[in-house]
Design a protein that fits this description.
The chain is mainly β and 360 residues long. It has one domain: Tachylectin-2, Chain A (5 Propeller), CATH 2.115.10. 2% of the residues lie in helices and 38% in strands. It has 1 helix and 24 strands. The chain has one helix spanning 7-13; strands spanning 27-28, 47-56, 59-67, 85-91, 98-106, 113-115, 121-125, 128-137, 142-149, 157-158, 172-176, 179-184, 195-196, 199-200, 222-225, 238-239, 242-243, 261-268, 271-277, 284-289, 296-303, 314-318, 321-328, 339-345. It has a 5-stranded antiparallel β-sheet with strand order 1-5-4-3-2, with no helix packed on it. Strands 6, 7, 8, 9 and 10 form a 5-stranded antiparallel β-sheet that branches. Mean pLDDT is 92; it is low at 1-20. The structure holds beta-L-arabinofuranose (FUB). Residues 49-50, 65, 81, 118-119, 169-170, 186, 261-262, 310, 312 line the site of beta-L-arabinofuranose.
């Protein structure tokens, strides 16, 4: 989606592109004039990634990661993604101003967490707002936490302990009528491969420890219904199976189609769409089912690879149209300093999704 005010051009003339974004709350409007990127960054004064978008109180609210420069050396466990807080953003109209509501939750306020506030998501129930987030605990193991607020923008108050029975990263919430489901999981730095039967296996430490062999079934995301309180799982987490067109599970060696991280669910025309990042092949892929629990059948690509290693998205309906939120590294050129974007998403009449190209 194009936006009309040439704000990005002004910032570039002022030398903005060579400097670190200033960490002050502000509103941003952007423009993609003369860019090779199909869509402009939504936020330019701080780095943002992994945008989870929802419609609350008639507006779009975005819950992204807040990327920062850090001294941490890059590795295959993603240690250089060393985020310390979350900001919440809102848009009254698509293509209009994006408001930064400031810090909604910070690491030092989460009693059980030690580092790495990765991709979050949020949900609303009975006028309360719930922010779901992953962080490493004091033993350096990812868990999922929840924090509560009376307002969509926070500030959020974290529960004192992680959500019992959760592990790994990238929580997202899918609401289906009165039911709310928590999805999660991510391999390599997301540690999903360290678990068997949902129990951490002693001694697994590296990104490849516990990964299935290429001919074995790939690891898949988990999902569980949330309790009435929204702060606990109401059932034992289940695997969301992803099958090929022959109803065979996608294999671990099928890197262009297998699940890596960033699971998101949406429903259109009575079908459940599970979309996810394929990680080292950099696609946002999707699979479709008649049930939120699956099994899901692989259907294709939502989003082609973006600039930067990671690809992470959300899909939301607003005023009768569907939108894809995603990120790339247009502003920084650095993998761990990303900027969020959005564009319209089209569901085709055969139930497929029209693939989005992030570059012109
Ligand atoms: O932002 C940190 C991690 O990078 C996320 O949790 C992953 O999905 C990837 O985008």
């Amino acid at each position: 989606m194009r936006q009309s005010i040439p704000y990005l051009s002004l910032l570039l003339l002022a030398g903005f592109a060579c400097s670190q974004p200033k960490e002050t709350a502000q509103t941003t409007e952007a423009d993609s004039t003369a860019s090779k990127f199909a869509n402009p960054p939504l936020v330019q004064h701080i780095y943002t990634a992994d945008p989870s978008a929802h419609v609350f109180e008639g507006k779009i609210y975005i819950y992204p990661s807040h990327d920062i420069e850090s001294e941490v050396t890059e590795d295959d466990m993603g240690s250089h993604f060393d985020m310390r807080d979350y900001h919440v953003f809102s848009m009254e109209q698509l293509g209009g101003k994006v408001t930064d509501h400031g810090v909604a939750l910070k690491l030092e306020d989460i009693p059980w967490a030690s580092r790495q506030l990765w991709a979050p998501d949020a949900a609303e129930k009975n006028g309360k707002y719930y922010l779901y987030f992953p962080a490493k605990d004091k033993q350096d193991i990812f868990k999922l936490g929840v924090a509560i607020s009376d307002r969509p923008e926070g500030p959020f108050t974290p529960e004192p302990q992680p959500i019992k029975g959760t592990f790994s990263i990238d929580p997202s919430v899918f609401q289906d009528g009165e039911d709310y489901y928590l999805l999660w999981g991510g391999i390599w730095g997301g540690q999903l491969q360290w678990y068997e039967n949902q129990k951490l296996v002693e001694g697994r430490k590296g990104p490849a420890d516990g990964l299935p062999e290429p001919e074995q079934k790939a690891l898949v995301p988990y999902m569980a219904k949330l309790s009435n309180s929204m702060t606990e799982l109401a059932e034992k987490p289940r695997e969301l199976m992803i099958l090929d067109k022959n109803a065979e599970p996608i294999k671990a060696g099928d890197n262009a189609r297998r699940f890596f991280e960033a699971a998101w669910m949406h429903k259109n025309n009575g079908k459940y769409y599970l979309s996810y990042s394929t990680g080292d092949t950099h696609f946002i892929a999707y699979a479709v089912s008649d049930s939120p629990y699956g099994p899901f059948t692989y259907r294709g690509i939502v989003l082609e690879p973006v600039e930067g290693w990671t690809n992470h998205h959300s899909i939301v309906e607003f005023e009768g149209k569907w939108y894809l939120f995603y990120h790339d590294t247009e502003l920084s050129g650095k993998t761990q300093l990303r900027n969020i974007k959005m564009t319209e998403l089209t569901h085709l009449s055969d139930g497929k999704i029209q693939t989005v190209k992030p570059m012109k």
